[in-house]
Amino acid sequence: MHWLVEPGFWSNPVVGTALVLGAVVAVVSGAVGVVVVVRGQSFAGHALTDVAMAGGAGASLVGAAPLVGFLLAGVLGGGSMEAAGTERVRDRDVATGVVLGAAAGLTALLLYFVSSSSSATGSTQSVLFGSVFTVSPSVVPLGVAVAAGTLAALFVVRRPLLLSSLNPELAAARGVRPRAIGLAFVVVLAASVALSALVIGAILSTALLVGPASAALRVARGLGGATLGAIAAGVAAVELGILASYDSFYWSSAHRSVPVSACVVGVILVEVALSALWSRARARRG
Amino acid sequence: MGGLALAGVALGGCAAAVAPVAPGTIPVVAAESQYADVARQVGGRYVSVTAVMNNPNADPHGFEVSPSVAREVARARLVVQNGAGYDDFMGVVEAASPSPRRRVVVAQRVLGLAVSIPNPHLWYAPSTMPKVAGAIEGDLARIDPTHRGYFAARLARFDDAMVALRARIRSLRARFGGRRVATTEPVGDYLLSALGLSNATPFRFQADVMNGVDPAPQDVGTLETLLSGRRVAALLVNAQVSSPVTTTLTGLAGGAHVPIVALYETMPRGFTYQSWMTAEIDAIARALGRGRSTRRLH
């Protein structure tokens, strides 16, 4: 095992926090991600990450915990995106794009203020690309609480949510209110994005949301199986990414390690590629 | 609310006029406040000096240049900067307004060092400023030859003020030389080696924190062991930089009763270069001798 797990991995407190928080975040992202992919909301999910990014930048400007900033901005931005809700797909696409651009601009402004007026160096790096190795262990309880709340909310709305995603007419006939369900889901999505922003950064959290879920949907049969698969793939990506980042310290004599977010996204890409190969092979077999 | 207040300050800053130059004086721009002070000490009443980076609450590595800096540089007859990649924006601003009348003193070039030197905080080396002051005096005498005697006398006075500082460094070296300290950034490393202290922090970790990149968990672990095991006599932090890692480390040092010393990256207001360095050295001596922390300079 020594060649796989370099010495000190299990005893390093920084790694311990990262493994715990990473697993929690991956579970939420996997479960929420399956619904995102089924509803075709990947782009809205990405817009939310940009809104969350502005929140994270604002939080580091006022010295608040990044998770709080990610969460507040995501819920506010996502709520207003959904409330402004347009019925036509094209209008929705444009509205998402406008929100995304505005949020990214606001992020640039806030990060400029951070670097020119306060001493919080590294905010740009940690807000955009995450730094799970620098997360304080005191954040873990809050992260677990947000994750539990998000999963509980998703569990409550899952039936009407999936029905309105897959068969809107049937859902309407059964009295499901699509706007209310859409709003509830956007709040769940914002919480999930806020969590993954902590681990791999706001800008990359789309990868954790969409990647494992799309891979699992290709391989698994049924939504239940896909959700479990997405959770497994997400947890594997985060934990293997953390391991690879830790091990990469020993790959060069200069001890330049590869950032966690890059490692996690790399594992996700491999998973998506493997799932594509799998479904192609299955199609050929008929 | 903080964001709104800051936005007001920043927008006000855009409109602010460039500081006036007193008639008959040489306009000088220094990239950092410590070089501005040396230029003032040498130029005396025949120079009007402005410093580009003089906010002790901001991290100079994250500095972005404003239009008023461009106007000040365009007008300056003498520019003083650090070089070594620390204030590259100065080169950009100078290239934008080329002038054959403007002289540029680059500390790194005066010292004969390469641009790629890993630790750019050259002013913390006690041997740096006398050489930079000499270069400034030479250029001022060429710009304003009628006052060359005045500048030479001011340079002699600057060097006199360095004598006491060097004596203080020698006596502390004799007393504390060989003691181990930890740092979060390379800001004071040249002073540490002048004091004969041994820096237990890997340079890779210092560079990562300086550049705002996440340090490797292995290096964070090394620092945590040094502090919680009290294997170092003091933790020297950069007063102008804070990140989740540095906050965690100062917390650990506080818990383990390892004294903390704040080293400033640019000269704080109310100091001269010599009094600032003396204050930093005294703070290090208080930490090593009496175990007392200095989190701010006054």
What does this structure look like?
The complex is a heterodimer of chains A (286) and B (298). By secondary structure, chain A is mainly α. Chain A has a single domain, classed as ABC transporter involved in vitamin B12 uptake, BtuC (Orthogonal Bundle), CATH 1.10.3470. Chain A is 79% helix and 0% strand. Chain A contains eleven helices and no strands. Chain A has helices spanning 13-39, 42-62, 66-83, 89-117, 123-129, 139-166, 168-173, 178-200, 205-219, 223-247, 260-285. In chain A, helix 2 (42-62) crosses helix 8. Chain B has 298 residues and is an alpha/beta fold. Chain B folds into two domains: 18-162, 3-Layer(aba) Sandwich (Rossmann fold), CATH 3.40.50; 177-290, Rossmann fold. In chain B, 50% of the residues lie in helices and 12% in strands. Chain B has helices at residues 2-15, 33-43, 67-75, 88-96, 107-110, 128-143, 148-176, 189-194, 203-210, 217-228, 244-255, 273-290; strands at residues 26-32, 47-53, 78-81, 103-106, 180-183, 198-199, 235-238, 260-263. Mean pLDDT of chain B is 89; it is low at 1-16. The interface between A and B is large, with 39 and 36 residues.
Helix share of residues of chain A? Answer: over 70%
Main CATH class of chain A: Mainly Alpha
Q: Which regions of chain B contain 5 or more consecutive residues with pLDDT less than 50? A: 1-16
Q: Helix- and strand-based class of chain A?
A: mainly alpha
Q: Distance between termini of chain A?
A: 40 Å
Roughly what percent helix of chain B?
A: 40-55%
CATH level-two architecture of the largest domain in chain B = 3-Layer(aba) Sandwich
* CATH hierarchy, class of the largest domain in chain B: Alpha Beta
Give the helices and strands of chain A as they follow along the chain: HHHHHHHHHHH
Query: What name does CATH use for the topology of chain A?
Result: ABC transporter involved in vitamin B12 uptake, BtuC
Query: Residue ranges of chain A: pLDDT <50 for 5 or more in a row?
Result: none
Spatial arrangement of strands, main beta sheet of chain B? 2-1-3-4
- From the alpha-carbon coordinates, what is the Rg of chain A to the nearest angstrom? 19 Å
Q: How many distinct helices of chain A?
A: 11
- Residue fraction in strands of chain B: 5-15%
Number of strands of chain A: 0
